[in-house]
Amino acid sequence: MPKTLVLKTCLDEGIPGPEHFEIRESPWPNIGDGVIVRLLTVSADPYMRYRIRSDGDYKPGEPMLGLVAGKILESNLSDWKAGDLFGSELPFTEIQSVPAWKAKTFRRLTGLISEDQISFGVGVLGMPGSTAYGGLVDILQPKEGETIWVSGAAGAVGSTVGMMAKQVFNCIVIGSAGGPEKCQIVKEQFGFDHCIDYKMCRSTKDLVKSLRHVAPAGIDMYFENVGGMHFEAAMQCLRPKGRVAICGVISDYNKSKMSPNKIYVSNMIYTEQTVQGFHCLPWLQGERGQFLEDMALWLSEGKVQVRETVFDGLDSFGSAFRALFEGGNIGKVVINLSPKSKL
Amino acid sequence: MPKTLVLKTCLDEGIPGPEHFEIRESPWPNIGDGVIVRLLTVSADPYMRYRIRSDGDYKPGEPMLGLVAGKILESNLSDWKAGDLFGSELPFTEIQSVPAWKAKTFRRLTGLISEDQISFGVGVLGMPGSTAYGGLVDILQPKEGETIWVSGAAGAVGSTVGMMAKQVFNCIVIGSAGGPEKCQIVKEQFGFDHCIDYKMCRSTKDLVKSLRHVAPAGIDMYFENVGGMHFEAAMQCLRPKGRVAICGVISDYNKSKMSPNKIYVSNMIYTEQTVQGFHCLPWLQGERGQFLEDMALWLSEGKVQVRETVFDGLDSFGSAFRALFEGGNIGKVVINLSPKSKL
User: Fold this and answer.
1) Within this chain, do residues A138 and A267 fall inside the same structural domain, yes or no?
2) How many interchain CB pairs under 8 A, A with B?
3) What percent of chain B has pLDDT over 90?
4) Which of A319, B187, B206, B342 is found 20 to 30 A from A188 (Cα to Cα)?
5) Chain B interface mutation, best of A265, A270, A274, A278, highest count of B Cβ atoms under 10 Å
6) What CATH number did the domain enclosing A207 receive?
7) Of A260, A266, A278, which is closest to B263 when you measure between CB atoms?
């Protein structure tokens, strides 16, 4: 029988883990008017943290829903055939039927990646990749030679932003990550010019000092993944015509109440600065830009590289999810489901 | 002899007035390679408040510099002739020579307004008009039927924003102003749908309540002239895809230290909200948009109307400037210089 990952209990405050999820067996699906699919990868992402709160939209006893990539097993649709690879948002059920209307929203991955790269479908060619792409290319609009600061630089989104900014747009790229090991990987593997170990900074003032040390003239862009003192430090170092793109505030996710940040709006007037929130959907769904084409090209050229922290099997989801908030991951956290598992 | 307005003493904190300025006589100018001009109007504007601080760029004993409109008296340039009307930024000296390089930056007002409308050159066809135009047309980009909130709605910038939003873009327009008299003018003369008397609101919570009363579904745009609790109330009522344009923070101008505002950046992500600072120069200088043409058209069609608080003579500048911070003005504050004064 196919397995399904179910939310066991909600969590308002604190770090989630295996105890908040459980596995349930599901019936074998009937194909209906669409397709039957097998999930090969499911994704653990920071944004899911909000959704397991008691006021979130994930409900105890119901299947978890999130970003997945997989393979078509059977199809009643002319545009999908058995063996095709796809990315989508689906319940975390290993084998399931998908109705025709929903299958029409699948992203086609066949031709872009091979089956052993299927996890890219929830990473660099999925939500985190499209977040990095939309935020950098369309929201921040980098110019050659500009300086960008990227928080969460060892993570799936941040590392991709930095590699694109460096390799595609020729920017000066500064990261921020937690601990010397991550900072080394950010510089050596992802090619950032500098990386600040924010765990060495006890205050916004400390962080500003570290940032000014590597960017004495300030920063032109800030890509916000974390919130808290990072946002305030970025605003203090932001140059005229500076842009800030906000796609995540992971420092808030495990708190029961959001923390406000200080902003001095008068500083934004003569400097013509912008702070803009955004999410990946316009680019992931192909409404804006050319995400899949551009990113697949940059991957093939080696301008963007992939690093993953891999977990195995649906029942490892809770540990994978916890790793996101304990800083236990480098690059994208993926949960691979064995394509050969007996059901 | 022509008179010049000079800054007497700097002021870091508190409300400026006549005691901070003095009149000095200037020599009759030599024409040089450019023009000799007579100023007919000089402008008192909130942004000048920063510049008379001890760390500002206006220095005691030196002439005040600001937005002016006037007439060419003599010209050595082919593109300007005696009698032409212009707008510019110049020292506040009644009659002065202007070198050719500077005269090339003059805005031509001949053909747009008559000499008895010359004060429009520092108002609706000058800095405040271009601030209103750039902020509304290009920064906020209103769509028909959207709701906009405008603070400082009785002032030169705010009233013009509201009239354009209502008459040109068919928006629902809510103002905010201090006191029942101003609120009545904002609604009756400037045609806003609603106006909130912020002096009746003791807290951000009060202001949010008043705003929700007239805009139960929230606001799509906020035009920021004042700062403080207005900014926070606007962010609390801002709808998805909401935009905030920041051009002034008058509540800060008389303090020695700027006050920070609270912002919850996580609220901006899924709502795709934007906060953007800007100033008028790109539109005033003709680098962006078609400010002079569009605004002169809307004026002639009666879509935008002008209301002024008029002071007479250079020596009234201090009182005019003070009125800006005491709420003593409705519409644009202008200082008219008699075109017939003996020199």
Assistant:
1) yes
2) 101
3) 88
4) A319
5) A265
6) 3.40.50.720
7) A260
Answer whether residue A290 is part of any domain: no
**ipTM higher than the 0.95 cut:** no
Given a cut of 80, whether residue A257 has pLDDT beyond it is: no
Residue ranges of the alpha helices (H) in chain A?
Answer: 48-51, 100-103, 127-133, 156-167, 180-188, 204-214, 229-237, 281-284, 291-300, 317-325
Do A55 and A150 lie in a common domain? no
Instruction: Concatenate the DSSP letters of all residues of B3-51 into one string.
Output: EEEEE----SSS---GGGEEEEE-PPPP-TTSEEEEEEEEE--TTHHHH
Cβ-defined contact of B269 to A279 (cutoff 8 Å): yes
**Mean per-residue pLDDT for A103-130?**
94
Q: Are residues A169 and A275 in the same domain?
A: yes
Are A116 and A136 contained in the same domain? no
Q: Within this chain, do residues A278 and A326 fall inside the same structural domain, yes or no?
A: no
Mutation site, B139, B141, B238, B265, interface A, largest A CB count within 10 A: B265
Residue-range definition of the domain harbouring residue A323: 3-123+306-336
pLDDT, tens digit, for every residue of A26-76?
Answer: 999 999 999 999 999 999 998 899 899 999 999 999 999 999 999 999 999
Query: Between B246, B263, B271, which is nearest A269 by CB?
Result: B246
Q: Is B260 in contact with A264 (Cβ distance < 8 A)?
A: yes
Q: Is B19 exposed, middle or buried (0-12, 13-18, 19+ CB in 10 A)?
A: exposed
**Domain check: are A218 and A169 in the same one?**
yes
